[in-house]
Every structure is written in structure tokens, then in C-alpha cells.
Amino acid sequence: MHSSSTILQSPFAEDVRRGLLAAQKAIPSKYFYDDAGSRLFQDIMQMPEYYLTRSEMEILSLHPAAIAAALRFSGPFTIVELGAGDGLKTKELLKYLVGQSAQVKYLPIDISGEAMQQLQHKLATSLPDLDVQPEVGDYFEVLERLDLGQQPSLFLFLGGNIGNYEPEAALALLRLIHRYMQPGDQLLTGFDLRKNPRTIQLAYDDPHGITRAFNLNLLWRINRELGGTFEPDKFDFYCFYNPYNGEVRSALVSLTEQQVRVKALDLTVHFRQNELIKTELSRKYTLEEVDALAAASGFHVEQHFFDCKHYFTDSLWVK
Ligand code: AVJ
């Protein structure tokens, strides 16, 4: 028996072990976001080809009045944000609500303590009257221990992160969010929509090589944190958009037959030439699919908000 299999390891270590031992190798995309990967994601958001962030920013900065008017709360309410990150987009909505003297409390949740500290600091300067109560942790772990009381809530799940989940997992996640909400609570979720296939292809297969570096960072991260011996030059990045099903699939490709050690896992992995490591799914939705997902997870769709080009939607649902 290998001693390492009896040692309790980090979720990252366990998921890497499972992913590299699988018949079809895979590393979950949530592990993109260590410090180096979060910086690369900031660079991705700056690329002209990566339209998602700007489209959603446009929705929240152009339509805060329409969004506010669609909220059902007459008295005090809480905004709970799942995966708040830098909170830059949400600030646009918060600014409007505070300007209207709404009695709103903001409860951003994120796995990154650093991001939550920066967000709190920024909001203390720009919106000093807003009550901000950041929580650090996995969103469901935080929701579980948090007592929202009887106060009605607007939940935010922005950025199109739902697109990273396989269909069954996306449905399970929305059902879980639904379970935490009270009747009458609302959810605003971001979905990246189907559009010209070349526009989508370019946002991921970018000519600057930033998305490539973002994917290869997974191998660097295994080297750094788990004592891996990956030579990232011996892997390529490949991604493609399939306009028939709306899926962008990303992968790393082993350029040669090779062996890689992962010391912390006491594991040696063999790669065939051109063998893939699956990294990410970024699903693009039709509005019919958004509506179907809402219904299947127990919500009623109230309104879709769009950017000018209709590239993205923030969809408002009620429980
Ligand atoms: C942050 C999950 C919305 O899927 O578009 C960017 C991450 N991946 N480029 C996305 C990502 C490649 C992004 N999300």
C-alpha cells in the first residue's frame, strides 16, 4: 500500500490525483485561480477579444435603474454575491441603489481573502454609507453558517461562471442556491449567449497567448504546490468552439510521449503523444436554454437584461 494514499491531502492534491489517473485526463478549471492565475485572468479581461467582462459591465452600468425597478423589496434588503471577486461590476448597481437611498446591505462572498479585503477597502472609499459585510470561504459553506434572518435578499451570481459547469452540475448548483433562498427572494445570474462563432473562438483562442498561459499555469501550479516535474514547453494549449452545442472546450495537449512525476502524490503519470488533459468548459447559452434552466431549478424568470450587442445577459429570477 502506498503511504501517500493514507495521508489526508488538500482538495487540489486529491483532484489532481483523480484527474491524472482518469482514463480521460482532466484538471478542474476552478484551479486556474491561484495568485498567478488570477493575475492572468485580469490580463484576459483586458484583452479586446474577451468581450464577456465588458458586456456585463455595460449591463450593470447602463441599466441599474431598470434592474432596481424590477426588485421586489420595499423595505431593507440584503445583496448576497456568490464569487464577488473584485466586485467592480457590482459597484455600478450598488452606487445606484445607495444614490436612491435604498436600505441595502451588501454581503460579498469569495474564496479569496485578499480580494474581499480589497473590495471592502474600495467600497469604504467610494460608498462610505454602504453596510458591507464580506465573508471569506466557499459559497455554500458560508451560506450554511450565515443567518440571513427574515431579511429579503437579492442573490448575485455574475460573470458567466455558471458556463463552467457541466449541464447536470449547473442544474444542481442552481437548485442548491434555490434551497438557500426564501420565497420572493431574487437571483440575478450572468449567462454568456450564443453569437457569431468567430467572436467566441477568438475570445478563447486569443492571438496574445494569454489564455494559453492561463491554461499552462495549471501545470506550473502542480509543479509549485505538489512537487510536479511538468515541462510546460512539452504541452500545447488547444481550444475550440462548437456552435452546434454552444460549448467552448479547452485542453492541454502532450506534444511527446512522456512521464511526469508528482512527488506529493507519489505518482508517475504517463502521457501518450497528443494525449489531452481536459481543462475547461465555457458554455454559451440560447435564451431558451436560460429559461429552461430557470424552470428546471424551480425559479420564475422575471426579466433578461442585455448589453447593446446582446452578447450577454444578466437574467433576473424569483423564487
Ligand atoms: C471566468 C469562468 C467566466 O469561462 O469565460 C476566460 C474563464 N477561461 N478565458 C470563462 C476563462 C478562459 C471565464 N469565466
UniProtKB/TrEMBL annotation:
Which parts of the sequence belong to the Histidine-specific methyltransferase SAM-dependent domain?
12-317
GO biological processes: methylation
Q: Which Pfam families match?
A: Methyltransf_33 (PF10017)
This protein's UniProt keywords? Methyltransferase, Transferase
Molecular functions (GO terms):
methyltransferase activity
Question: In its UniProt entry, what is this protein called?
Answer: Dimethylhistidine N-methyltransferase
Q: Which organism is it from?
A: Rhabdobacter roseus
